[in-house]
Amino acid sequence: RFAGIVAFPVGMGRCRVYAPTRAGETYFAHVMHVRTDAGLLIFDLRIYGRDGCLFVACSGVRMKDVSGGKRLPPQWINIPAAADQTTGLMAAGCDALTVIELTTVAPFADKVLSADESKRFENMSDRRRRSFLAARLACKRLSRILSGNDTETDPRDITTVYADKPSPCCPLTDGRSAYACSVSHDDRFAVAVACTGRVGVDVEKMSERVLKSRSFFMSAQEEALGRESRLGEIETSVRIWSIKEAVTKALDITLTDAWHRVQVRSVGSAESRFQIDDQDPCTAVHAAVGQHVFTLVCRL
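^ thats the sequence. predicted structure below, dont judge the formating
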């Protein structure tokens, strides 16, 4: 999908079978891109049972196009160039970024939670548990990326919540805190970002409901932006809301404070400009995936 080719396995570095898989059973596969090397796409692969037990672990699975370019991915699976560019802008604007679809969270994912994370998880509803798990998995992935792609540390030893406040964290796997962290989720995605400066992220689903509450979170000038924007009122209003949500997390202020302190001056599909308390203008970066909009603000 991301390489724009139909790739086939042509080799493998190492494979260990812990237990044989059986026909008719359901398994969960975790495929991790390691690197691209001389035309080869290299992955690690894990296959788990329903209870989370590891059945097969493969390292260095090498894949490439063996059709000479004659076979291409179907159009529906390709990522539009514009979407790829906007997600690239978001990734470039922070030190690390991870996005997880909630439907991909395995039923045994709670086994990776630390003791502090498990305490919070136990008191949640089933719906809240899924988004909480996805956010924790995203933060733990950030910790591994920022620690040099550490794959050895037990995930239960990575704690992504504070004991005394609701904010997330993504410590390095050696325990050091070197980055600020922010998470968000809607009904499809969970996203986590890390940055050396203050950072906030938000993801929102497009909905006309945002128009009904405009008077609460938008100034008269911002409402005018919505009416005049080529994006349309809904997309513009969602981006303005999302910017203020992200700033709330970056500055650790209330949403009501952000509504009044943040003034959005211009709104674009991929970038918007805003001010906090009449200070110098800042940039918010957006990425759209289907009917969902991601917004990143950092180093405020």
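DSSP finds eight helices and 13 strands in the chain.
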